[in-house]
Automatic annotation (TrEMBL):
<keyword id="KW-0052">Apoplast</keyword>
<keyword id="KW-0464">Manganese</keyword>
<feature type="binding site">
    <location>
        <position position="163"/>
    </location>
    <ligand>
        <name>Mn(2+)</name>
    </ligand>
</feature>
<comment type="similarity">
    <text>Belongs to the germin family.</text>
</comment>
<feature type="domain" description="Cupin type-1">
    <location>
        <begin position="70"/>
        <end position="217"/>
    </location>
</feature>
<dbReference type="InterPro" id="IPR006045">
    <property type="entry name" value="Cupin_1"/>
</dbReference>
<keyword id="KW-0732">Signal</keyword>
<feature type="binding site">
    <location>
        <position position="112"/>
    </location>
    <ligand>
        <name>Mn(2+)</name>
    </ligand>
</feature>
<dbReference type="InterPro" id="IPR001929">
    <property type="entry name" value="Germin"/>
</dbReference>
<keyword id="KW-0479">Metal-binding</keyword>
<feature type="binding site">
    <location>
        <position position="112"/>
    </location>
    <ligand>
        <name>oxalate</name>
    </ligand>
</feature>
<protein>
    <recommendedName>
        <fullName>Germin-like protein</fullName>
    </recommendedName>
</protein>
<keyword id="KW-1015">Disulfide bond</keyword>
<dbReference type="GO" id="GO:0030145">
    <property type="term" value="F:manganese ion binding"/>
</dbReference>
<dbReference type="InterPro" id="IPR014710">
    <property type="entry name" value="RmlC-like_jellyroll"/>
</dbReference>
<dbReference type="Pfam" id="PF00190">
    <property type="entry name" value="Cupin_1"/>
</dbReference>
<dbReference type="InterPro" id="IPR011051">
    <property type="entry name" value="RmlC_Cupin_sf"/>
</dbReference>
Length: 224
């Protein structure tokens, strides 16, 4: 067991090094730029705290040994090491998230428009996958790349591609996911398409999905 946990730490460190070396966000122009959550300045990113106000606490967080926040989809909770929990991550191009899943949980199709995702399975079995979007092949020939991942397995999702997951019904599951952006973007397709707050033109979704308005109405009722 100790050897396995050592391997996990090694994999995580390697993942972080790789994502840092190939970060999608612009490279920092100074040692650090700790996020100043009191600033009202609007920039492409987050404003920096005055250096004489920076402390070691700005580069630290805890709590990834568990998760308590409700995820954006059912049967999952999460905790994050992000720029909002570690202000010192600002401009460093990294985010780390822990997800815990109940048996049989479905991870809805979603997109990270600004980041590549590297997922490490800490517990359980999850089928992870993404769909290609190569215009040269035509949308009807897109390919779904699926892999059943068990404890200790790692799966990568290229930036901007629709991806998803299905947790085995045999037990709980846990993942740690690294992103090479401090703001990967979390665009969950079902909620964003069928959420009633969008006020899309009447009949648009029915035409797009080639179904009746009644079917669209039934789906939207789940995303109120």
């Amino acid at each position: 067991m100790a050897a396995f946990h050592t391997s996990i730490v090694a994999i995580l460190l390697l993942a972080l090094i790789v994502t840092l070396a190939n970060a999608y966000d612009p490279s920092p122009l100074q040692d650090f730029c700790v996020f100043d959550n009191t600033s009202t300045v609007l920039v492409n990113g987050l404003a920096c705290k005055a250096r004489d106000k920076v402390t070691a606490e700005d580069f630290f967080t805890s709590g990834l040994n568990t998760s308590t926040a409700e995820a954006a989809f059912p049967n999952s909770t999460f905790s994050a090491a992000s720029v909002t929990t570690i202000p010192g991550l600002n401009t460093l191009g990294l985010t780390l998230i822990r997800n815990d899943y109940l048996p049989g949980a479905a991870i809805p199709p979603h997109v990270h428009s600004r980041a590549t995702e590297l997922a490490l399975v800490l517990k359980g079995t999850i089928t992870l996958g993404f769909v290609s979007a190569d215009p040269a092949t035509g949308y009807k020939n897109n390919t779904a790349y699926l892999k059943e991942c068990a404890e200790g397995d790692v799966f990568v999702v290229p930036q901007g591609l629709v991806h998803f997951g299905q947790v085995s019904s045999d037990g709980d599951a846990t993942t740690i996911t690294a992103f090479n952006s401090q703001n990967p973007g979390f665009n969950f397709v079902p909620a964003q398409v069928f959420g009633r707050s969008l006020s899309l033109p009447q009949g648009f979704l029915a035409k797009s999905f080639q179904v009746t308005d009644q079917i669209i109405e039934e789906i939207q009722n789940h995303f109120q």
